[in-house]
C-alpha cells in the first residue's frame, strides 16, 4: 500500500496566530483538496505570524523535514506592510513558476478589481511545489480552481507521488504518451 501524499497547509496570519480569530483559510484549502483528490493524502498543518523568518523556517520544515510534495500557503500576499509571504517563498525556492501567480490573478480579476493587488507566487524547493494562495476562503477556491489542473503533472515532473483527481471536481492535465490519441 502506498503512503499518503503529504501536503503542507501553512496559514500566515498575525491575528489567527495570536488567537484573535479562528483560522478559516487553512481549513478551506483542506476542504478543496478533499473534493479534488481521490488519491490518499495527509495534511501537515502549520500556523505562523506575518514574519518572514517564521514563514521561511516553516516552509523549509515542510519541504525538507516533513517531505511534503506540495505546500500551500494562505495569507500575506497583499500590499500591506506585513504581507511578506511571497518574499519568504522566493527566498526558499530553487525556481519560481511565474504562470501560477499570473493565472490566479487572472482568475480573481473575474470577481474583484483588487486582484491586481495580489502578489502570490509559486515555486519549487527540491521535490516540493509551493503555491501562495490569498487569505480569503472564497478567493482560495477561485485560485485553486484556476491552477489545480496543472498541479498533479507538476508533482509528477518533480518525481513526487501521483496525485489522482476526482474528475467531477477538477480534471488534471497530463500530456498523453507518444503514440496515444
Can you tell me the overall shape?
Answer: globular
N- to C-terminal separation?
31 Å
CATH class: Alpha Beta
**From the coordinates shown, what is the CATH architecture?**
3-Layer(aba) Sandwich
- Rg value: 16 Å
User: Superfamily at the CATH H level?
Assistant: MoaB/Mog-like domain
* SSE series: EHHEHEHEHEEHH
What would you call the structural class?
alpha/beta
Secondary-structure blueprint:
Layout: E1 5-12, H1 14-17, H2 25-36, E2 41-48, H3 52-65, E3 70-74, H4 85-92, E4 95-96, H5 98-109, E5 122-125, E6 128-133, H6 137-147, H7 151-157
Parallel strand pairs: 1-2, 1-3, 3-6
Antiparallel strand pairs: 4-5, 5-6
Helix pairs in contact: 2-6, 3-4, 5-6
Describe this structure in words.
With 181 residues, the chain is of the alpha/beta class. Helix content is 38%, strand content 18%. It has seven helices and six strands, in the order E-H-H-E-H-E-H-E-H-E-E-H-H. Strand 5 and strand 6 (128-133) form a beta hairpin. Helix 3 (52-65) packs across helix 4. It starts with a strand and ends in a 24-residue tail after the last helix.
Amino acid at each position: 500500500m502506498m503512503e499518503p501524499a503529504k501536503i503542507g497547509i501553512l496559514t500566515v496570519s498575525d491575528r489567527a496566530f495570536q488567537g484573535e480569530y479562528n483560522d478559516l483559510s487553512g481549513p478551506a484549502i483542506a476542504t478543496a483538496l478533499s473534493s479534488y483528490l481521490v488519491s490518499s493524502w495527509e495534511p501537515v498543518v502549520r500556523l505562523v505570524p506575518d514574519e518572514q523568518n517564521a514563514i521561511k523556517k516553516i516552509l523549509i520544515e515542510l519541504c525538507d523535514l516533513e517531505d511534503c510534495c506540495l505546500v500551500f500557503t494562505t495569507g500575506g500576499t497583499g500590499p500591506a506592510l506585513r504581507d511578506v509571504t511571497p518574499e519568504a517563498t522566493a527566498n526558499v525556492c530553487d525556481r519560481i513558476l511565474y504562470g501560477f501567480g499570473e493565472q490566479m490573478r487572472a482568475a480573481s480579476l473575474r470577481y474583484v478589481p483588487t486582484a491586481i493587488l495580489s502578489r502570490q507566487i509559486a515555486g519549487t524547493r527540491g521535490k516540493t511545489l509551493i503555491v501562495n494562495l490569498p487569505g480569503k476562503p472564497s478567493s482560495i477556491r477561485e485560485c485553486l480552481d484556476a491552477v489545480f489542473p496543472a498541479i498533479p503533472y507538476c508533482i509528477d515532473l518533480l518525481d513526487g507521488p501521483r496525485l489522482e483527481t476526482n474528475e467531477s471536481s477538477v480534471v488534471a492535465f497530463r500530456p498523453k504518451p507518444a503514440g496515444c490519441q
